[in-house]
Write a structure and sequence with these properties.
single chain, alpha+beta, Beta Polymerase, domain 2, four-stranded mixed β-sheet, 9 helices, 4 strands, about 10% strand
């Protein structure tokens, strides 16, 4: 943990306590900010014993302050609702489980197991939706290299997240973002070369050395391979 995001998280907890008092149950930090991306806003899951319109109004009054402090709008849920929604959002909660830090209260994921069947169905829906939109986006680009390049670059973060989800589906459990990404690629049989290129596009820190448009054929093939891998997974013992 870095002192910078810890201090930001402390600010959020103080604000939440002013709204919820002793109804504030747990605050868990997750996402890019705690994984080394200093430019990313701090994302937090917040669980409370009850949630009213007045509470929402209280949080709304903090929104501009949170934006200035680089705090993303918290994922705010009553504890009971959170527990009942684990099967509905297995990918989203799975990503939080993979790498999170308890900021306040008990860790809500202690002892929580996300069902593999729920995870597989969600992976299938997300991957096939990504595949459809990638094909549509290419057609809409009209063959223009600049537009195709924008399509590839803009979809890189979603592709890398898909690989992490496939990693979890295949029993690759690590809090290291790159290890999870590459583990998902290996499990699905996606070539290392295209994975490295897409990771570089996800968080560009230097002038690109590769034209994203040139990656499209291999990128499309990689997403198609992901879809096949998830389809096959259901037949595994």
């Amino acid at each position: 943990m870095t002192s910078t995001w810890q201090a930001t998280a402390g600010t959020l907890v103080t604000d939440l306590q002013s709204v919820f008092g002793d109804r504030l149950g747990s605050v868990v930090a997750y996402g890019a900010a705690i994984e080394g991306d200093a430019a990313a806003p701090l994302a937090c899951l917040v669980l409370v014993s009850s949630l009213t319109v007045a509470d929402l109004e209280g949080c709304a009054r903090k929104a501009s302050h949170w934006e200035r402090a680089a705090i993303a709008t918290p994922l705010l849920l009553p504890t009971d609702e959170f527990r009942r929604s684990l099967d509905a959002f297995p990918l989203e909660y799975g990503e939080i489980v993979r790498a999170h830090v308890r900021v306040f209260g008990p860790d809500p994921f202690d002892g929580v197991v996300i069902a593999r069947d729920d995870l597989r169905r969600a992976c299938e829906a997300q991957i096939k939706s990504h595949l459809v939109h990638l094909r549509e986006g290419f057609i809409e680009a009209g063959g223009r290299p600049t537009a195709v390049g924008r399509l590839v670059a803009a979809s890189a973060p979603a592709f890398v997240a898909l690989l992490r989800n496939v990693a979890g589906l295949n029993g690759v459990h690590t809090s290291d973002r790159m290890e999870a990404t590459r583990g998902g690629a290996r499990a699905a049989g996606v070539p290392e070369a295209i994975v490295s290129e897409m990771i570089a596009l996800e968080r560009p820190s230097t002038i690109p050395t590769t034209d994203p448009a040139r990656l499209f054929p291999d990128y499309l093939t990689a997403v198609e391979q992901l879809a096949r891998a998830v389809d096959t997974w259901r037949d595994q013992p």
